[in-house]
């Protein structure tokens, strides 16, 4: 019941600078559980923003009255990556040695926010549920750790997909839980849930 809402929410996205990405924003109005109405959209060209600073933007909603006030910062994020099995970061002896040195006991208190480094190899899934009428699924896998989220590509028409991807995350809290969720891609519709596993970092 407000024409001037304040959300004060923060979202972190991993942005790879070799891509030309637009940040798409939609504002919706919800009357009840069944009725929703689009109040407007706006777009931000990430490449056009200055880096290493917080940009205060007032974005008018397209074809609708009103505007959004946002703070957007494009900053380097170290330690996060996606790679193939053949070129995974810890596969390089020099890089492995640098990481071991970075997290050795004598450097424990150098950066209190830099707790550790997690590498996850997502190989394959077996005997997934069929989500399509054809008896197949179009599965992809989403990994979440704290407010970091990365995902694999989609393997189409397959109940036993092989992704063979390597994901690396910086660990900011040793009590975080790695959540791995498998979804079925469903075109323009929200993806269907196929399963999930949660792995506390303290169990690794």
TrEMBL record:
InterPro entries, alphabetically? C2_dom, C2_domain_sf
UniProt membrane topology term? Multi-pass membrane protein
Q: Which UniProt keywords apply?
A: Calcium, Membrane, Metal-binding, Repeat, Transmembrane, Transmembrane helix
Compartments where found? Membrane
Q: Spell out the molecular function terms from Gene Ontology.
A: calcium ion binding
For the C2 domain, which residue ranges apply? 1-59, 93-204
- One GO BP annotation of this record: regulation of neurotransmitter secretion
Where do the TM regions start and end?
none
The record's annotation in Gene3D superfamilies points to: C2 domain
Gene Ontology CC annotation, any one = synaptic vesicle membrane
What's this protein's family per the entry?
Belongs to the MCTP family.
Name of the protein this chain belongs to:
MCTP2 protein
Organism classification: Eukaryota, Metazoa, Chordata, Craniata, Vertebrata
């Amino acid at each position: 019941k407000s024409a001037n809402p304040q959300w004060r929410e923060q979202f972190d996205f991993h942005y790879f600078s070799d891509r030309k990405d637009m940040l798409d924003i939609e504002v919706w109005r919800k009357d009840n559980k069944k009725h929703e109405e689009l109040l407007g959209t706006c777009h931000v060209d990430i490449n056009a923003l200055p880096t290493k600073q917080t940009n205060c933007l007032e974005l008018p909603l397209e074809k609708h009255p009103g505007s959004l006030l946002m703070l957007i910062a494009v900053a380097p994020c170290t330690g996060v990556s996606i790679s193939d099995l053949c070129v995974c970061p810890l596969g390089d002896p020099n890089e492995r040695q640098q990481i071991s040195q970075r997290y050795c006991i004598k450097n424990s208190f150098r950066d209190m926010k830099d707790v550790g480094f997690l590498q996850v190899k997502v190989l394959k899934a077996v005997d997934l549920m069929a989500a399509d009428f054809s008896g197949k699924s179009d599965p992809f896998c989403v990994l979440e750790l704290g407010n970091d989220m990365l995902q694999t590509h989609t393997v189409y028409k397959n109940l036993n997909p092989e992704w063979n991807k390597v994901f690396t995350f910086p660990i900011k809290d040793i009590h975080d839980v790695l959540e791995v969720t498998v979804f079925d891609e469903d075109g323009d519709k929200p993806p269907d849930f196929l399963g999930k596993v949660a792995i506390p970092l303290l169990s690794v």
